[in-house]
Amino acid sequence: MSAMLQVEGLTKHFPIRRGVLRRVAGTVQAVNDVSFTVGEGETLAVVGESGCGKSTIGRALLRLLEPTAGRVTLDGTTVTDLAPDAMRAMRRKMQIIFQDPFGSLNPRMTVAETLAEPLLLHELATPGDVQDKVGALLSTCGLQPWHAGRFPHEFSGGQRQRVGIARALATRPRLIVCDEPVSALDVSVQAQIVNLLKDLQAEFGIGYVFISHDLAVVRHMADRVAVVYLGRIVEEARADALFAHPRHPYTRSLIAAAPRPDPTQRNVSAPVEGDLPSALNPPSGCAFHPRCPLAQDRCRTERPALRQVGTSRVACHFAETSEAGDSRPEAAPSEALRRRLAILDAARAKETA
Amino acid sequence: MTDAPLLDVEDLAVEFHVGGTVQRAVQGVSLSLARGRTLGVVGESGCGKSVTSLSIMRLVPQPPGVYAGGAIRFDGRDLLTLPEAEMRALRGGRIGMIFQEPMTSLNPVYTCGAQIEESLSVHSNLSPKAARERAIEMLDLVGLPSPRQRADDYPHQLSGGQRQRVMIALALANEPDLLIADEPTTALDVTIQAQILDLMGDLRGRTGAAVMLVTHDLGVVAQTCDDVVVMYAGRVVEKAPTAALFADPQHPYTVGLMAAVPRIDTAVDRLTTIPGSVPPPWSKITGCRFASRCPLASEKCRTQDPPLRDLSPGHGVACWHAPIEAAA
Question: In what residue span(s) does the ABC transporter domain sit (chain B) (predicted)?
């Protein structure tokens, strides 16, 4: 048995050209030797800070950016070997949702036209039944039938993201790459979209590669989490294990840096110093060593390989010996908050009944 | 030394007159801030939190913006009636400001050092040489590595976190009494955000400035603020000391907002949502602005706007049904 999506050794380098002759002056190593799998109905979150290469991973595995090296296999078909024609057909099975659907929806097409196009292109609908199928898609994504005649600018951010999801869903994909799908949304709307994505996954068994910088959202979305630093996976584990026992010092500092919505637990101080280094000129050895509290001489010269430690994969020389049970006590919402929420929920249930 | 707050906003109303319609961005907002305190102004997009902070600096573009009522008293003087020249002396002088995107607020054609020096020379009578030294001292204070070299860098040569540090140095150069920070860490990564919040807390302790922190992030509020004002659709719906707000949220919107925040420490199966969306600013609402999304909404809520009233000392709520338990 093999996983639905297999990514092996995915690498993407961007040459930097300078001067009149456009000579290659350097290489940005955006993604280096990244491997992971995603099963049917499973969510793998790819997390990291801006510039770490997480979006490039998403684009390279869909071949929206041609990978420099590596192999991507979906349902046994090697996507990276496909000729352009076969690749176009393959795109039906692998879709993407962007952070800002406004940038990816055609402003001159109504929602109905946007959704009908992939259906007709991939022969999933006929001109006769396409309107019904568009209507069904809209209702699946929590939109109203009269939204079909509207243009993207007429929607709020949350509704526009629902249109983006409906468009990705139109071709009945096996895999959706979600690139920061809720980062631009307000919290109350963000929760609606996260719940919608989970519902769709449960209904259609879609695999998600969920790219995000927000670990709190990831905790609620992901089955497994891959933490990326400067183009490489530094830790990969089941979500519950990763949050309970983060093994890489970078993962620990990401979790510690997230501000808790709880004034009784104030952060003592920032967990790491300094900025993300440049991918054009990455540090020697372990790329995290200039910011790492555990760094030793060995880390400056020898890059740690990603290896199995317990149930996790970790790229740190000290993964076995460093403290892994570092997580803070769970901060439960206050008693009054839970009580009042229950009252509001009960009133809402009565309203809809 | 008086007991009067440094900043006292009373019943502020700001409208935008666009194409024959009147958009009420801020309606009847009152808040006050004492020296040495940090006030969080929290709410979702379109709630009026940024318009409120821009109003204090009188930076709302007119037209289309109109200050339709109320007063903004800073150290006893009403900023809304102050002559423009005096207002200009306050901005960057006694009132410092930090915005979300430092790339758009820093001038790309001047070096970081030159921009701080300019602000110093406008607001004080330092010699160019002294201003230069002070600018470098400020860059050092905000934790920029090798400040003497960085002072000659242009904004684009710095990373996002470093640019935000330059913005903070610029805002604090003239030792303001009031610092207004509008989403100062929203564009930054979490590890950098933690560094910047640390820095702001540190500098507040050192200079005793009052800070007004505008944010959508309840986590940032919980970590940094003494008091909080929750805004919804142009109104203040709840205000309280931070600890009281998180332990004892009263307004149905505050309760919904807090429940909707995903928590990194606890996994739940489904996130709580607030159904519906914020009413657009041009909609004419006579009653409570949250009524359309509130399961407790009654006829009274739909017709009469609830005033902000104190449930306990310092904890005000604008809801006819508060406390919520009374509705159960």
Answer: 7-258
